[in-house]
Write a structure and sequence with these properties.
GO molecular function, one term: endopeptidase activator activity
Shape: elongated
Organism: Muraenolepis orangiensis
Helix content: 55-70%
Subunit structure: Heterodimer of PSME1 and PSME2, which forms a hexameric ring. PSME1 can form homoheptamers.
InterPro entries: PA28_C (IPR003186), PA28_C_sf (IPR036997), PA28_N_sf (IPR036996), Proteasome_activ_PA28 (IPR009077), Proteasome_activ_PA28_N (IPR003185), Proteasome_activ_sf (IPR036252)
Radius of gyration: 30 Å
Keywords: Acetylation, Proteasome
Number of domains: 1
Structural class: mainly alpha
Order of helices and strands: HHHHHHHH
Strand content: under 5%
Length: 240
Amino acid sequence: MASLLKVDNELKAKVDSFREQITSEAENLVASFFPLKLLELNSFLKEPILNVEDLKEIHSEITVRVPDPILFTNSHHALDLQNAKKRKLEDAAGEENCRDAKAETKLVGAPELMMKSNPRLVDLIERVKPEIRTLIEKCNTVKMWVQLLIPRIEDGNNFGVSIQISRYYITRAKLVSKVAKYPHVEDYRITVSEIDEKEYISLRLIVSELRNQYVTLHDMILKNFEKIKKPRNSNAESLY
């Protein structure tokens, strides 16, 4: 029985208080927050920004000057121009290899070389991201509430912690390399910020999930302490 396990009364009171807090918050989410959020998102779906009839309306102009065509008057002149172009490219390649750090810094910071992102999509993404985060966090609270309502281990719970750390550093390193190689493409810079935000949210949820696992394990162990302390064949089978 749970009474066989000595539990500090003060700690037990704090755990019970936490469980009551989760229960109260989850019930409020189901009874009030979820319906209100559903109506809010339904109104969002009716806004003009999400009801564009012609997708060309959301296209973003890329102001990159197209070089003028080269007109050839005769074959000899064309050959001379091709040779001149080849020498020019070879000279440019040599200068590229000799470019110093100061020139690189100037290129990165030159605003006229920056290719802007699609402003309408950026605004929409920035509006949708908080909604995604809110949904994940609120569902996590309800999940915790449901888990605490399950009375016994054999009802379907397990002791496994299904948390996997993403390959954040290698992914970010590749993106930063893209920024260094293509400093004038703004989307690569935005992607670096996005991967940082994603990792932050993941880490926050991982910490939350770790906390929830401790609570769940504590709850299940207390409810099954007699089976753990004095296991029998039938009880042992129900624990795994």
